[in-house]
């Protein structure tokens, strides 16, 4: 509904300008005798109508369109590793719910030292997460990676554990332990505020894992 309202507002100058120009033309034809003052008024009206139309066309080009969302291919699910402490399960459940309800995220995957702890949202067919070059770099460099339009990246093949038509992906390190992988159903849909929010949740998960999962031997990544 908001998008429709924006489109109407952007088209309004064009409609008003065209209507004004048409009415001026009709008035000119219906006037039996044209005075000098009316000629000046008509010229000014035509100029204003043209300006309105030009402004409307400019808005159509300059103002960005909202990215097109798709229906992700997969089944909705909520999977937790069964051997986790209850405190970790509760933290993962809360974190994934916040991400799914407060951002454009449709798929959440959490890994800790090579082990998949959580899969939630629209799930892909492959339950195994095998880190490729992108995920490896995120873990090693301790810096998040945002793939704004996944189909444009050759490295997208490593994300075969996400729904195959995932549009955007954020890979957020969880301390030095693991990674948070988020999939969206629209390209270029995460904002800077979303990225800050995601980083904060990853930090919170890192604290939780450090408290409750230190007895787990690190796995090879």
TrEMBL record:
Xref: Gene3D superfamilies: 3.30.450.40
InterPro entries recorded: CCB2/CCB4, CCB4, GAF-like_dom_sf
Signal peptide segment: none
Superkingdom of the organism of origin: Bacteria
PANTHER family reported in the protein's UniProt record: PROTEIN COFACTOR ASSEMBLY OF COMPLEX C SUBUNIT B CCB4, CHLOROPLASTIC, PTHR34943
Protein name per its UniProtKB record: Cofactor assembly of complex C subunit B
